[in-house]
Amino acid sequence: MRFTTIILLLFLLCNCTIAQTTIHGRSVNVADGDTFTLLDDNNTQHRIRLDGIDAPERGQAFGNRSREYLANMIVGKRLSVSFTEKDRYGRILGKVSTDSIHDVNLCMIKSGMAWHYSYFNSEKEYADAEKDARMKKTGLWVDKNPLNPYEFRKSKNAKNNH
């Protein structure tokens, strides 16, 4: 009996899923094409990083356009952010939606305003959306060889360390 109880407890512990949380509010600041500040219904501010995408940085080609595109989708709208974790900077890694847009993150990729961040996200729909945007030369894909934000940050850090 004791052995069965232990096995059952281990089984339950191993099969637990991470609880998803959803917060609601409005954007009070859009930093760039994948990061903004949300003011929730309790007047608490949260830094939100759109999960599964990587948008051009400030000072990078399409950086301003990407930020403006995100702002046009979310500013003045009621937002829902679903998430399970925070990143190493304390930002909520979330999937964002509005009353009219089911997946803002996906819209950023489809419009060519962000890369699918495949290193941290394996959603096939995001990967397919990036392939389609590349093929259609949508947004940043109009450039022949756009520099992804990871490489841009890496080269910027290398310059700052010399």
TrEMBL record:
Keyword set, alphabetical order: Endonuclease, Hydrolase, Nuclease, Signal
Keyword Transmembrane helix: no
Pfam families, per the entry: SNase (PF00565)
Molecular functions (GO terms): endonuclease activity; hydrolase activity
Lineage: superkingdom: Bacteria
Residues of the signal peptide: 1-19
Domain (TNase-like): residue spans on this chain: 21-143
Name of this protein: Nuclease
Organism: Bacteroides graminisolvens
